Amino acid sequence: MTTTIKTLHEWGLGNGERPLLISGPCSAETSTQMLTTANELQEAGIGIFRAGIWKPRTRPGAFEGVGSKGLRWMQRVKSETGMKTATEVANVRHVDSVMGAGLDMIWIGARTTANPFAVQEIAEALKGTDIPVFVKNPVNPDVDLWVGAIERLQTVGIKKIGAIHRGFSAYETSIYRNPPMWQVPIELKRRMPGLPLLCDPSHIAGKRNLLQSIAQKAMDLNFDGLMIESHCNPDEAWSDKNQQLTPADLKVLLNSLVIRQVTPEGASAETLEELRSQISFLDDEMLDIMQKRMEVAKAIGRYKKENNMTILQPKRWEDIIESSLKKGDERNLSHRFIDKMLKAIHEESISKQTDIMNEGMEDQ
Ligand code: PEP
Ligand code: MN
């Protein structure tokens, strides 16, 4: 058992095995929705039930949660299924209601973590309590702000603190709702090695088909657990419907995960697996960057077409090669490698731009 999994187990969360699993709907909607989902999750082997009672929404007018009556449904879930219960708190009033209802775990949402005043008030309201508190990353990729929120809780004497990685808001379009930027949680873990760290693939993905690969990556990076949204009827969910799974589909996803150990029996701490997972993670980042680069190349192609410019602009290409070779030197990358890599990228850009130039030609 790793130290952090042992810590979670001591807090009454999980069975001492990785990953710790938390699931349930984005929002509490009705008592039937809560109980049906919880019963199905319990059958699927999930020990901790989540539901949002108060929902921070980006735009006004969206469903903002059922409010404290949802806490009574949480209590029923707890007594009827034996599951532990968890919800989000965003202010002192939420803390007081949740403590009164006897829930087992709370988390501070991404928008709240970004606000030091709000976190300070929540920390003070929690003073003297024993409930495990999980801090989601702030919406912006600022590891200091994340650490700062955790420190505010530590300063008032709270001992059971964990973190949840849920990705970061982005202006650019991406396949993710909130791009994971894995280097940020990795840095948090480096700074606070004893802190249990969970991943929330649902809010990173924003859609079902990405959940499995994100969850697997979190496992490969040795995260302690997963919080994944589920709903008895996801297509009818009142919030985040594209990213919620049925409990049965969640079970399929969980069964597909390969759970690797940091140090298998007889292996040294710096195992090959650990290094390989770092390589895979970096390769994936590189592919994401390539995708973005090709989108930009296409935009340039459209510009060139509209302005009747040639695809190949030799001066520009020479400049790129020259400055990249220099940057490569600073990074200890050989000229031969830089040259080959840039040529391959350039070839792909040119082919994307050629497609754009030729668009509509076959009709003429
Ligand atoms: C949630 O967990 O439903 C939620 C609102 O998450 P976040 O704070 O990560 O957006
Ligand atoms: Mn949600």
Give a quick precis of the structure:
With 364 residues, this protein is α/β, with parallel strands linked by helices. Helices cover 50% and strands 10% of the residues. It has two domains: 4-256, TIM Barrel (Alpha-Beta Barrel), CATH 3.20.20; 267-359, Chorismate mutase (Chorismate Mutase Domain, subunit A, Up-down Bundle), CATH 1.20.59.10.
Could you characterize the architecture of this molecule?
The protein has helices at 3-10, 31-43, 69-81, 92-101, 110-113, 116-126, 143-155, 183-191, 201-205, 211-220, 247-256, 272-306, 314-330, 335-358, and strands spanning 20-24, 48-50, 84-89, 105-108, 133-136, 161-165, 197-199, 225-229. It is of the alpha/beta class and 364 residues long. The protein has two domains: 4-256, TIM Barrel, CATH 3.20.20; 267-359, Chorismate mutase (Chorismate Mutase Domain, subunit A), CATH 1.20.59. An eight-stranded parallel β-barrel has the order 1-2-3-4-5-6-7-8, surrounded by six helices. Helix 12 crosses helix 14 and helix 13 (314-330) runs antiparallel to helix 14 (335-358). The protein is globular. 34% of the residues are buried. The mean pLDDT is 93.
Q: What general outline do the C-alpha atoms trace?
A: globular
What small molecules accompany the polymer chains?
Answer: phosphoenolpyruvate, manganese (II) ion
Strand order of the largest sheet: 1-2-3-4-5-6-7-8
Terminal-residue CA separation = 68 Å
Labels describing this entry:
Chorismate Mutase Domain, subunit A; binds manganese (II) ion; 364 residues; alpha/beta; 8 strands; 2 domains; 14 helices
